[in-house]
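Fill in residues.
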């Protein structure tokens, strides 16, 4: 297939793909929304399209204890490494959490092989970052990463180890400034917090914001970093709070508008992009109206900026749509999005899981009826205005 369709590794432009099939063998619990198996489905679709011939493929290794404690507290990592798994209860809502480090509740259960799962996710993102640092990749992809809620000494929102923070710390060895962009439907609070007090990382998160009803409840438009002007991190956190039902057109235009202004003022040396796929229409947790086209236009836009780019996964709770988006975004990375057939290849393993045989379903195919759009043009204009004002304080 790859040869028939002329998918070959182009000279002079390198994309690396960091992945370990061991990660997917882990289970959060029967009813838990996080399904590591979506990585299997993604990899199987990427391979069915023959995209592996156009990239450098690496089996990611597990991050070491030393690598994990480059950000995380050692007592927290020690606990992760040694804590006994909970028996998997039938009713996930009625766990008896020990809640040490926020572990063992229903969001962050103590499942079999947890430490292995965390180190593999961290290892893939670290490998990806190091390929960028060594100038051996132009784009490095780690779909098993993107776990943006994990804190220095606390698990949160399905995340235990913040692989993004670990990867950005690597990028900061070579680059004076790193831009972090987060298109997961949830606020990238863990990454924002890690780099809150530095002007070397700017964090930009697009997310649903409804503090009383939607996790994690942070990320208001006015939260732009430390309030003290003497703190270098002031103005270096950008938050784009959105409501249910946002469309491709609105999202793409908002994204391009804001990121263009951010790049102009902040002038990063590298970009870290979290591609959480729970911002897609039809997600089990998210309620946006984004198609693969709108979601992936963010990847396309970042690629065009011609800066070293690391791409992570993240959320995404309707596996068939997660696999579609991350496959199409892999195609964008290697520059083949316009050359691959939109029909899902006939020999794709688990092809029936996709239900319909297209890579780019319409909103009607996904939802029947789109969700009501609760984002007014007035609010979106206000957001751009506020961000523009924040950026007046950034840069030389
Ligand atoms: C990056 N939403 C992670 C997103 C993390 C969201 C939450 C659930 C959830 C957990 C379950 C479950 C669920 C249907 C959905 C306040 C609570 C309310 C647990 C029932 N079904 C990412 C985290 C968020 C676990 N947490 O950004 C087991 O939904 O809202 C909350 C916290 C307390 C705990 N309860 C939910 O995408 C990877 N959790 C079913 C079984
Ligand atoms: Ca986000
Ligand atoms: Zn999410």
């Amino acid at each position: 297939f790859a040869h028939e369709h002329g998918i070959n590794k182009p000279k002079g432009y390198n994309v690396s793909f960091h992945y370990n099939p061991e990660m997917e063998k882990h289970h959060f619990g029967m009813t838990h929304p996080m399904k590591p198996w979506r990585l299997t489905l993604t990899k199987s679709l990427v391979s069915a399209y023959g995209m592996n011939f156009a990239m450098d493929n690496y089996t990611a290794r597990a991050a070491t204890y030393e690598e994990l404690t480059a950000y995380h507290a050692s007592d927290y990592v020690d606990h992760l490494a040694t804590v006994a798994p909970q028996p998997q209860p039938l009713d996930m809502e009625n766990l008896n959490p020990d809640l040490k480090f926020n572990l063992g509740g229903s969001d962050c259960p103590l499942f079999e092989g947890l430490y292995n799962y965390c180190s593999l996710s961290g290892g893939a993102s670290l490998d990806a970052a190091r390929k960028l640092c060594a100038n051996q990749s132009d784009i490095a992809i780690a779909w098993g990463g993107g776990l943006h809620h994990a804190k220095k000494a606390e698990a949160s929102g399905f995340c235990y180890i913040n692989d993004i923070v670990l990867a950005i710390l690597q990028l900061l060895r070579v680059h004076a400034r790193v831009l972090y962009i987060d298109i997961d439907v949830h606020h990238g609070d863990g990454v924002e917090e890690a780099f809150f007090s530095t002007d070397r990382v700017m964090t930009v998160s697009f997310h649903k914001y409804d503090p009383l009803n939607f996790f994690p409840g942070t990320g208001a438009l006015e939260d732009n970093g430390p309030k003290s002007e003497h703190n270098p991190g002031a103005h270096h956190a950008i938050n784009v709070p959105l409501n249910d039902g946002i469309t491709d057109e609105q999202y793409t235009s908002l994204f391009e508008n804001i990121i263009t202004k951010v790049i102009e003022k902040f002038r990063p040396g590298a970009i870290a992009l979290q591609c959480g796929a729970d911002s897609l229409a039809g997600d089990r947790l998210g309620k946006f109206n984004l198609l693969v086209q709108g979601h992936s236009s963010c990847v396309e836009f970042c690629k065009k900026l011609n800066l070293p780019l690391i791409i992570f996964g993240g959320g995404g709770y309707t596996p068939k749509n997660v696999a579609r988006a991350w496959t199409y975004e892999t195609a964008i990375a290697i520059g083949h999005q316009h050359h691959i057939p939109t029909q899902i290849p006939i020999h794709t393993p688990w092809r029936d899981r996709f239900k319909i045989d297209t890579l780019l379903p319409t909103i009607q195919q996904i939802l029947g009826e789109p969700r009501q759009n609760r984002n007014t043009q007035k609010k979106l204009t206000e957001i751009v205005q506020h961000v523009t004002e924040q950026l007046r304080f950034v840069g030389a």
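The chain has a mean pLDDT of 96.
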